[in-house]
Specification:
Rossmann fold, GMP Synthetase, Chain A, domain 3, 3 domains, 16 helices, 25 strands, binds adenosine monophosphate
Amino acid sequence: MQDWSLTLDKLLDHAARWHGGREIVTRSVEGPVVRSTYADIHRRAKQVSHALLEAGVKPGDRVATMGWNSDRHLEAWYGAIGIGAVLHTLNPRLFPEQIVYIANHAGDEVLLADPACAPLLAEILPQCPTIRQVVFLSEAAPPTPFPALAYEAWIAGRPADTPWGGFDENAAAGLCYTSGTTGNPKGVLYGHRSNYLHAMMTLQPDALNLSARDTVLLIVPMYHANAWGVMYSAPMVGAKLVLPGQKLDGASLHELIEAEGVTYSAGVPTIWQMLLAHLKATKGKLTTLQRVTVGGSACPESIFRTLRDDYGVDVIHGWGMTETSPLATVSVPSPAIAGRSFEDQLPYKLKQGRLLCNLDLKLVDDAGRRLPHDGRTFGRLMIKGPTIASGYFRAEGGEVLDDEGFFDTGDVSTIDAEGYMQITDRAKDVIKSGGEWISSIDVENIAVAHPKAALCAVIGVVHPKWDERPVLLVQLKPGEQAGKQEFLDFLDGKIARWWMPDDVLFVDEIPLGATGKIDKKRLREGLTGYELPFDPNLRR
Ligand code: AMP
């Protein structure tokens, strides 16, 4: 067979040549919705490559971006990886000191940023000595106390024939830091080949099943977990791409979905909750949307039901992490499940799903012994494959693989006889009560279905008899009032008695982290000094 190295620049070459007229639609930082095509993106990405080479960027150097999902961000992405530079997506929602740490650790040299990030950059740049050029992803650069260029002037008039590729398929392409809920954030370095394989894996019918006929609204930020691979999978099939910019509120997303005929979208549960709240309030419809992938945290049952029953949209639950490129399991029906009614399929759809090809999974106990796939036994989830990290950037965190080459996900889960994996907790969030494990996620998902609940979180609190007991924290919907017993009654019969929270606390706001997930670390800090109501006679 011919030699054809799997480098990612080929994906945009392919899209420009064979799907050149397919549209890329962006809600621009300047405000209006703007249109371009794969051919335009390809031409302008080549101009970015020329500008980067002129700025002295060499293969392996880190080019950082800090911005929302946009056409210019996509051009910068391919402009960097096409010449063998490493595209490092910085998350503007992190705390400034975290961004400083990450940019210095990565050794970023050029930074392309949305103009809205200018005040943040003024704060952090004096502490980031490796960044020697800043380009704003806009027509005009905002006034700044540091030297900066405007993207349009930076690329204008440049040749669009800078050669791409020609490097090893195992060369690094992307760098993404994990959310870092414990310790410093750690970098995950993706390779051209690993991301190419990941894109092919995610496109399978039993995964995201994207095609040239799809219009994809990418809500997952490009700076989070490799944008779920969509920067590669969409050009690979020539899907129309809709990039929502900074406006991720329900009204703005709904407007784009309807105006652009979106058929498929991907995002974390909180995004879908916001969209559903907007649709309900405005009696809005979803006339073109067929299916959505929900992942990043467990998708509550209410989202599955409402999207299906009220809007005819199928939810595909997916699981993964920055270290797994990220998609690894997808909850699509197995042959044994497919013929059942929706109600009978739902318990499986709610699980995180079945493994994509090329990967292997196992469950182990604390001593590393394999556990059965019986759908009941909880264990540490370990994963292996060419799209799974073998370590962190600059060997941070040391050796991370076990003797069999499996990566410890830090998730606790079960796997059933049909091969469906179900996350029961993060290893550090699992509640250990009387030697048994309680899944905080299970209780949260049931509690959040309460009609008055906006968000729910369950955390373990030290208990004199049982080691730890669950406490339910509830953020009510605006204008709602509720008592503790109402929530306990709601859970009664839906969870095991000994999983019943010992207390229900109403809070103004459940804190979300930089990627929209519930920040349990901050919740725990907020409960410092809190003591459980303790009844020594209560039997569980
Ligand atoms: P991140 O690397 O920031 O994307 O975080 C990855 C972690 O998010 C995983 O290890 C899981 O704990 C969690 N996660 C991702 N998808 C899901 C899901 N569908 N259900 C439950 N947890 C999830």
